[in-house]
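pasting for ref
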Amino acid sequence: MNDVIKLLTSHRSIRKFAARELPEGLLDTLIEAGQSAATSSHIQAYSVIRVTLPSSRDQLVALTGGQQYVANCSEFLVFCADMKRPLEAAARTGEDVVSGMTEQLLVATVDVALMAQNVAIAAESEGLGICYIGGIRNNPQAVSELLDLPKHVYPVFGMCIGYPAHEPEIKPRLPVSAVLKTDRYGDDEAQVADFDSTMHGYYQSRKGGNKDANWSQNLTPLFNQKLRPHMRDFLVEKGFTMK
């Protein structure tokens, strides 16, 4: 296992940060590393909003469900799927452009996710900790208004970056045999049952709060209700009409 793989397999979400700024120029370096990620047809369909105003940070804490580390981290970034820039660039060539295609939504979302993960890995390689904030999608319209996001741009998630002020355990992952399948999908019920036992043990023994639950039980709130039902109408309003 080389140093890169060791870094990747040691990821933890950090939610407590030291009151310490990043060195001058490091954030730009992290973004440059993000830009080196794979991008569909070199579209680079992403933009990143760096949020520095304390008032905006405080509003984002409320909009993301009270996640106070959004305000307390050294840097808070909002990663946006951005089809505005490539659509306008294509239109300036004189060609008629088609917007709102479902594939454009998928491309932009995948592009920004790949870019953000490069940023996360680069940050961790510098001794920083990160936490993705999917709660940005709890109130995407309000976030868009706060950050002045134009049509064909939508906020996918946020990311807290800073120096860790705690050392959480590494959360177990599903076994490779459950996710790496050969030639056909097959059944992974036995692997999931074993993983439920693994996660129950993890939750019972972890520092900073234990609970009597397993992986399957933790998934229930994601599937026993309509999760963020506002997202489709919001995306359509943003120009991602999914034609």
